[in-house]
Description:
The protein is α/β, with parallel strands linked by helices. The chain is built from eight helices and nine strands.
Amino acid sequence: xxxxxxxxILTGSGISAESGISTFRDKGGIWSKYKVEDxxxxxxxxxxxxxxxxxYNMRRQVHHGVQPNPAHLALARLExxxxxxxxxxxxxxxxxxxxxxxxxxxxxxxxxxxxxxxxCEKRCAWRQDLDLETACPACGTTGAFRPDVVWFxxxxxxxxxxxxxxxxxxxxxxxxxxxxxxxxxxxxxxxxKAGAHAVEINLEPSEGVSFFNETVHGFAGVExxxxxxxxxxxx
Length: 235
Ligand code: BV8
């Protein structure tokens, strides 16, 4: 395998499945229990803020105490040992990449352990439940404090930085994502435009599988450490 200098990695909920966190679109996934438009859109929040705050309270509670799996740990090892650049862009709102030791990380869809105030726009870490009586720690306003998560119809974070990295990369790894949600699902096309080698590591072919040069289908906890070993051996 050629020596790659600039690696961009995209992860989705599938990388956290073996840590015990539900994915969205698999059988029994989150969207089989909740309607997207009710809990992951600004309109849903305006219509019934309590339902949305309770949904993210449940998501936050599930995330307490879960641990990274070998896939998260392998990506942190790749960043430590690879002599070139490695940027990890995650669609996930959990902290498993951080706990595993990844440093160069972008949470493009936000983080369930952060919140922000729509009155004063202060953003902060937030680990406990959030309800309509929760006062913003900066301005004291209640009823305007929400999870710092990007909902459908909202603009994902740091797209300029991600776009620049994709157009400069020579290896793009997509791990544990169904390739359903844009603009993340379109990243492979930007990477290919840059001439990068694009690899999908997923339990099953994603919606964008045809855009990849190479596909590895299996459990992330098994296939990601194996792929990282190959990369670091230059094999
Ligand atoms: C936006 C909230 C405007 C946080 C989420 C074209 C262009 C641009 C936008 C659109 C477009 N077409 C449509 C849109 C609008 C929309 C969209 O994409 N809709 C889809 C449904 C058609 N996009 C948006 O609204 C985005 N914003 O467009 O703003 C804009 C655009 C560009 C530039 C400027 C402005 C906002 C999208 C963000 C929405 N928020 N989450 C939360 O509650 O978590 S999205 C949600 O889906 C999660 O973040 C999740 O990460 C994400 C993607 O899902 P996946 O991670 O892929 O999870 P999924 O369950 O689908 O798949 C899991 C995969 O893992 C499966 O393939 C499975 O096989 C695999 N797997 C399972 N177990 C394992 C495994 N693989 C390996 N090992 C295992 N063990």
